Amino acid sequence: MRPADIAPTLKALSPIRLGNYFSYFNAVDDFDLYACYQWNGEVSRSLLPLIHLVEVTLRNAYHRELSRYHSGVRLGRPQDSFDWYNHVRLSPHSQRAIAKVLRTRTRPDDVISKQTFGFWTNIFSESTTPWATVLKDVYPNATRNLAHSSNRDKVEARKQLINDLRNRIAHWEPIWKLPDLMEERILRPRAAPIRLVKPAPTNPEQSIERLRLIHDRMISLLDTVDPLLAHNYQDSYTYEHFMWVCSEGGLVSFRASQRRQELSLTVAKRDLARIMRGNAIVTVTNGRQLMRIHPLGRQ
Fold first, then answer.
1. Which residues pair with 283 in a beta bridge?
2. Structural domain contains residue 275
3. C-alpha count within 13 angstroms, C-beta hemisphere, residue 69
4. Which residues fall within 8 angstroms of residue 12, CB to CB, at 6 or more apart?
5. How far is CA 40 from CA 14, 60, 66, 139, 239, in A?
6. Residue 13 — very low, low, confident or very high, per pLDDT cuts 50/70/90?
7. What is the percentage of the chain residues whose pLDDT exceeds 70?
8. Is 106 in the same domain as 130?
9. Cα separations (Å) of 141 from 93, 100, 220, 223, 258?
10. Within a domain: residue 242?
11. 0.85 exceeded by pTM
12. Under DSSP, is residue 104 helix (H, G, I), strand (E, B) or coil?
C-alpha cells in the first residue's frame, strides 16, 4: 500500500512509533519512511508460518513422548495422550497455566493445545521426568546427545530465542530492532557468564543478517524433531518469500515501490526481462484477473 496522502497514515501510526525508522533506515521522506515500516511488517508476517510450524510440532512431540513415558509408568501401557502434567513437578507458573485450562477442559489434548510456546521453553525444569530417555524421541534427529544437560541448555536457549521473536511480532515491535546475540546457553549458578557472540545490529544490513540467522536456527530446530517437515518448508513458497523479503533486495523493492503499479498482460510479457532485472513488485492484469509478481533476488 502506498497512500496518495501519506500524512493521515503516519499520524495514525504516531510519529513516536516511527521515529526510530528515520535514523535507522536513513529515510529520505515520509513515503520512504512508510515503505520501511511496511517492510518490517512483511518480514514479521513472513516469519509467522515457520514459528507456527515449530511451535505446533514441538508441542505435539513433547506431549506425545511425555504421555507415553508417564502413562507407561502409571498404567503399565504407553498412551499417546495422557494427563502427564498431573503427575510431574511443573514450575508454579506452568501449574497455574494448566489449572486455568482445567477449569473448562479435561481432555489432555485440549489442555495442552491451550498452552503457550513459553510453557515449553522451561519444561526442562521439571525434575521427575528422565529427560535423557524422553528427549531422544522428541528430537530423534538431534546430532548432540541430549542426555547431557549442557546440550539440553542449548535447546532451551534456542526455544527462548524463538519465543522472544514470536512475542516481538505479536506486539508489533520493530523486527529489525534486535538485542545482542548471546551464546546459546542457560546461565546456571556458579557457571561462567554467557558469552557475547555478536552485538546488536546497528543498520538494516546487519538486521537482515541476524534475522536470517534466527530463521536458520528455527529450521535447524525443526529438523531435529521432524526432518521431512523441515525439508517441506524449505521447498515452499513461504520459505522463498521470506528469503526474498528479508534481503537487501527485498528492502529496496519496498522502498522503490510505486502507488498502484500495474501492467497489462501484453506489456508484462513484452517487458518480462526488464521486470526481472528490477526489484519492484508488479501486478499483472488480464481483464478481471490479477497476478502479482514478487522478485526473489538472485541465485
1. 262, 292
2. yes
3. 20
4. none
5. 16, 31, 38, 32, 17
6. confident
7. 94
8. yes
9. 30, 34, 10, 7, 46
10. yes
11. yes
12. coil
Conformation bin of residue 297: beta by default, left when phi > 0, alpha when psi is -120 to 50 = left
Comparing CA positions, the residue from 211, 292, 206 lying closest to residue 245 is 211
Asked if 155 contacts 225 with a C-beta cutoff of 8 angstroms, the reply is: no
**39 within 8 A of 255, measured Cβ to Cβ:** yes
Alpha carbons 231 and 46: distance in angstroms, whole number: 17
What's the grid cell of residue 106?
479435561
Quote the cell numbers at residue 282: 508488479
- Expressed as residue numbers, the domain containing 222 is 6-255
Q: What are phi and psi of 291, to 5 degrees?
A: -140, 135
Q: Indicate the number of domains in the chain.
A: 2
What is the Cα–Cα distance from 135 to 148, expressed in whole angstroms?
Answer: 11
Question: Is the distance from CB of 120 to CB of 58 less than 8 angstroms?
Answer: yes
* Each residue's pLDDT tens digit, 113-145: 999 999 998 899 888 999 999 999 999 999 999
Q: Which residues are bridge partners to 26 per DSSP?
A: none
Contact 38, 258 (CB under 8 A): no
Closest CA to 164 of 151, 179, 153, 152: 179
- Name which of 148, 132, 158 is nearest 65 in CA terms: 132
Do 220 and 270 reside in the same domain of the chain?
no
In a domain, 168, yes or no: yes
Give the whole-angstrom CA distance, residue 77 versus residue 59: 22
Nearest CA-CA partner of 2 in 270, 263, 296, 253: 253
Asked whether residue 247 is domain-assigned, the answer is yes
Count of alpha carbons within 13 angstroms of residue 230, beta-carbon side = 16
d(CA 134, CA 64): 10
CB 259 within 8 A of CB 2: yes
Find the length of the chain. 299
Terminal alpha carbon distance of the chain = 28
